[in-house]
Amino acid sequence: MTQEKYTRQTITARTEWIPGKLFSITTTRDPAFQFVPGQFARLGLPENPQINAAPDLWRAYSMVTPPHANELAFYSIVVPDGLFSPRLRDLQIGDAIYIDKTAFGFMTPERFPQGGQLWMLATGTGLSAYLPMLDDPNTWQQFEKIILVHGVREANELTYQDDIARFARTHARHEGQFTYLPATSREKLPGAPQARITTLIETGELESLANATLDPAVARVMLCGNPAMVTDARKLLTDKGFAPGRRGIPGSLAVENYW
Ligand SMILES: Cc1cc2nc3c(=O)[nH]c(=O)nc-3n(C[C@H](O)[C@H](O)[C@H](O)COP(=O)(O)OP(=O)(O)OC[C@H]3O[C@@H](n4cnc5c(N)ncnc54)[C@H](O)[C@@H]3O)c2cc1C
């Protein structure tokens, strides 16, 4: 028998955040599957289960659960004419899902030195990668200040707020260690800027809102989600002196593009 590169797991829970648009699934976990917060799994499904039950469609998904959890969870958009995400959305509790035995990805806090501020900038489902970091006490030990910026179009896409508040209550070492900054681009939300993340960086408003300076001497920045945001924000940050780590030298910038 050939040794498969993946394991068969089972859906144990589903959450519909916005019907037909945003959902989460929880799955069983192979005890041998190891990862660090910020990494992603490759999920597999058969394109046509009637013809072939073996998985032939594979997509990357960041773990939203921390490494110490017994199960895995993933947060997903539904791309209406996408091949994978509508199939993932249709899975019911008890259905099978396939997970590559290896976790991937380098946008992890361990790439950064001890101390300073961690800025987590996400658009949409890019939030996923930051949730296990926020649910990990090591992140709160590593950084003096953590700033989470979640950019979405409409306010109902600001998901996981209760969990984020709970992580801060559980792990924050001091008052003011954590700042959560939601930003909506197509809807006015009281107390939150109506602007894109890149505009907020450019105008300096992000620094005012966070009460912190985007200075590579003290700040480490992660960018995750929409590749246009990642490219534009990376340019703005490079101009400020931010750079990814190289040849064992820790950097001040780490990114993950979702497509
Ligand atoms: C490293 C990595 C981690 C990822 N983690 C996640 C995750 O945690 N959650 C998640 O929902 N997706 C994530 N993705 C994207 C995911 O792999 C799929 O692309 C997505 O679920 C859509 O699959 P699809 O086959 O339906 O459409 P695809 O054919 O893969 O994508 C079609 C188009 O949909 C758009 N699109 C794809 N993904 C997204 C998205 N997340 N948000 C908005 N628009 C999108 C893009 O325009 C893309 O060209 C990740 C991708 C990478 C590379």
From TrEMBL:
Keywords: Nucleotide-binding. Its EC number is 1.18.1.2. PROSITE patterns: FAD_FR. Pfam families: NAD_binding_1. The keyword Nucleotide-binding applies. The keyword Protein transport does not apply. GO terms for biological process: cellular response to oxidative stress; heme catabolic process. SUPFAM superfamilies: Ferredoxin reductase-like, C-terminal NADP-linked domain (SSF52343), Riboflavin synthase domain-like (SSF63380). One of its GO terms (molecular function) is ferredoxin-NADP+ reductase activity. It catalyses: 2 reduced [2Fe-2S]-[ferredoxin] + NADP(+) + H(+) = 2 oxidized [2Fe-2S]-[ferredoxin] + NADPH. Residues 4-110 form the FAD-binding FR-type domain. It comes from the Bacteria. Belongs to the ferredoxin--NADP reductase type 1 family. This is ferredoxin--NADP(+) reductase. It comes from Advenella kashmirensis W13003.
